[in-house]
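Give me the fold.
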Amino acid sequence: MSTSPRHLFKSTVVVSLSTLLSRIFGFVRDMLIFRYFDKTATDAFIVAFRLPNLLRTLLGEGALSVSFIPVFTQYLRNKSEEETSEFIGVCFTYLSLFLLFIIGIGVYFAPELTRLLAFGPGFRDVGYKYD
């Protein structure tokens, strides 16, 4: 694995452009959804993605990446390839177990989470939106 400054810069540009492209496509998706679907469907869409977006922000773009990347970089620089692979495996295993736990909680408490995330009068007045 190369960790030269040139390689790091190239990787940073690729990730940044991919993120920008993802944001643009997400914006276009939202415009099309709000243009072609009625308010009931768009309200349900917003509520359905509120929790996954929060988790993505916290774990994918927040504290996890800020804490993981420096440690991973230290492993790449100072540890053997075997130790680095073991570190990656352990992280993957724990994150997978955490994800399964979060999914289980989400499935088990889905009605309560829906009421928590969809608390506005637009949902309380139209009962079938919860379905």
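DSSP finds six helices and no strands in the chain.
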